[in-house]
């Protein structure tokens, strides 16, 4: 049975392991150490939420973050929009982890008054694009090897 809760500093190592597992599977390089996860996902001052999925062995099997984009967004996300990131262990794919994480994130977005959420996905990541489409995101921009999808939050 999986549980979902706000990420805590002690989760950073498990989150980093998920990123490394994804890198091993896909070859898509990215920062993947615990310090990065702590700073970028858990303690980011622009964070709306960061939710982790925890399995019965108390291991992190997925996480999703939502931040508010600033004026210098790395992906060109409009300032004030939410920017989402979803990372699920390859061992947990197909178990509804991403859908449950998004339900938590969507509730936090509504509570924070976020009206639009941007997902910036690599053009070479059809699985990620399909996930966000299944959650109701629609493509709004394609540039620089990325597909950007937007979710319009009903308040």
Automatic annotation (TrEMBL):
Keyword Acyltransferase listed: yes
Gene3D superfamilies: 3.40.630.30
Domain N-acetyltransferase: residue ranges: 2-155
Spans through the membrane: none
Keywords from the UniProt entry: Acyltransferase, Transferase
SUPFAM superfamilies, per database record: Acyl-CoA N-acyltransferases (Nat)
Acyltransferase is among the record's keywords: yes
Domain of life the protein comes from: Bacteria
InterPro entries per the UniProt record, alphabetical: Acyl_CoA_acyltransferase, Bact_Acetyltransf, GNAT_dom
A Pfam family that the UniProt record links to this protein: Acetyltransf_1
PANTHER family, A to Z: ACETYLTRANSFERASE (PTHR43877:SF1), AMINOALKYLPHOSPHONATE N-ACETYLTRANSFERASE-RELATED-RELATED (PTHR43877)
Protein name: GCN5-related N-acetyltransferase
